[in-house]
Amino acid sequence: MRNRSLFLIILAAIPLILQHAHSQEKNKLTVLTSFFPIHAHTLAITGNLANVIQILPPNSSPHDYELKPSDLVNITNADLVIINGAGLESWLQKIVKNVNPKIQILDTSTNLPLLPNPQPTHNLEDQNEHTHNHPSSQAIPTQEKINSLHENSHHHHSHKNCCHSAQSLNPHFWLDPVLAKAQAQSILDALCKADPQNAQSYQANAASYFQKLDQLHADFQKTLAQLPNKNLVTFHSAFTYLASRYGLNYVGFIEKCPEANPSPKQLADLINTIRKLSIGVIFADKNYSPPFMEKIARETNTKLSFLDTLEFGVASPNAYIERMQANLQILRNSLSPQP
Ligand SMILES: [Zn+2]
Question: Which secondary-structure segment (H or E) carries 190?
Fold first, then answer.
C-alpha cells in the first residue's frame, strides 16, 4: 500500500475511532484476527470471554485485501492481533505498525516448518521425467487451444502483493490439521498471556478443541491412506502442506495464489501431464473457479471437483473442523475408483 493511500485511510478513520472509543466494551479482551482459520481457532479457545473480530470480510481474499477506514477502528482498539503469517497478511502488518505501534501481533507461522512457495507446474517437470512416454500428437494441445485457454484465464483479481513479491514461503499451512493445531497452540499461549484472568478457561476450551483437531488428523490419515489414487491437481497451490502430510502426490497446480494468470506454456504442460498420468479428477477452489479450469477438465476429459481453501467466510468455533471434514469427504469421493 502506498503511503498516500495509507494517510487517506487514517484520515478518514479518525471520526470513527473517536466515536467508537466511547462505546467499546472495555472489560473484555479485544482480539483481531486476520481471516477464517485464525478466527475459528481463536473463537474455539475464547468462547464468549473475548471480543474476537475478523478483519477480512466474507468475500475477500487474504491474498490481496485492502483495508478500509473502519478496519482502523478495530486496529486502534485491539489488544492483540493474530495473523497466519508467512507473508500472507502483509497488507495488515504494515498498517498495524503504523496505526498502533504498541499492539502485540501474534504471527502463528513462527517456528513452524514452512515449505517454499513452488513455481506453478514445477512438480510437473519432475513428473514428466519419470513418466516419459512417447507423446502422441493427440496428447499435445494445439497452440490455438492453448491460446483460447489462456484468454479465458484472465479473471477479476488484480495483481497485488502476493504472487510477484519477494515472498518465498507457501503460506497455506492452515490446511494441514497438524500445523493448524500448532497455530491454535500459539493462539492459546498468546491469549493466556494477554488475559491471565481467563487463562484457565482458555486452557480448558483449548484442550477439547485440540482433541477435535487430533481426531480430524486421524480421520485424514485413515481415509486418505486407503485411496488407491493419490494424484492431486489443484487450481492454486493451497494444498501443498496437506498433500505432504498425508502422502498425496501433488502432480501440479496452476497458480501459487489466485491472482496470477498461468502462461500458455504452463497450461500446456499441465494438460499434457494430466493426460499422461491418466488423472481422473482436477480440483478447483470452492469459492473461486476460473473458467479455464472447466476448459482444462473438458480438454483432458477429467472430472472437475471443488476443494475449500478456507480463505473465505466468517468463522464459528467449529467451522474449521467442519469445513476440513467436508474437504476430506470431497477428496475421498473424488479420488475413489468410480463404480
Ligand atoms: Zn491461497
Answer: helix 177-194
Q: Which amino acid is it at 237?
A: S
CA of 309 to the centre of ligand 1 (A): 7
Q: How far is the CA of 319 from the centre of ligand 1 (A)?
A: 18
Domain residue ranges of the chain, discontinuous segments joined by +: 3-113+173-213, 122-170+227-335
Give 256 Cα–ligand 1 centroid separation in angstroms: 7
- Residue that has been written with the C-alpha cell 476440513 in this structure: 324
State in Å: Cα 339 to ligand 1 middle: 33
CA 19–ligand 1 middle distance (angstroms)? 35
3-113+173-213 CATH: 3.40.50.1980
State which CATH number among 2.60.40.3080, 3.40.50.1980, 3.10.20.340, 2.30.30.110 fits the domain covering 122-170+227-335: 3.40.50.1980
Q: Tens-of-pLDDT digits for all 339 residues of the chain? A: 445 666 777 777 766 665 555 445 568 999 999 999 999 999 999 999 999 999 999 999 898 898 998 899 999 999 999 999 999 998 898 889 888 888 999 999 999 999 988 765 544 434 433 333 333 333 333 344 334 433 333 333 333 334 434 458 999 999 999 999 999 999 999 999 999 999 999 999 999 999 999 999 999 999 999 998 899 999 888 999 999 999 999 888 776 656 566 778 878 888 898 999 888 999 999 887 778 888 889 999 999 999 999 999 988 999 999 999 999 999 999 999 876
Cα–ligand 1 centroid distance for 273 (angstroms): 23
Match 502476493 to its residue by C-alpha cell.
162
Side by side, which strands form the sheet with 104-107?
50-54, 29-33, 80-83, 104-107
How many helices, marked H, and strands, marked E, lie in the chain?
12, 8
Record the pTM. Answer: 0.81
147 CA distance to ligand 1 centroid (A)?
A: 25
Task: Find the 237 Cα to ligand 1 centroid distance in Å.
Answer: 7
Cell of residue 89, nine digits: 497478511
Q: Are 183 and 106 in contact (CB under 8 A)?
A: no
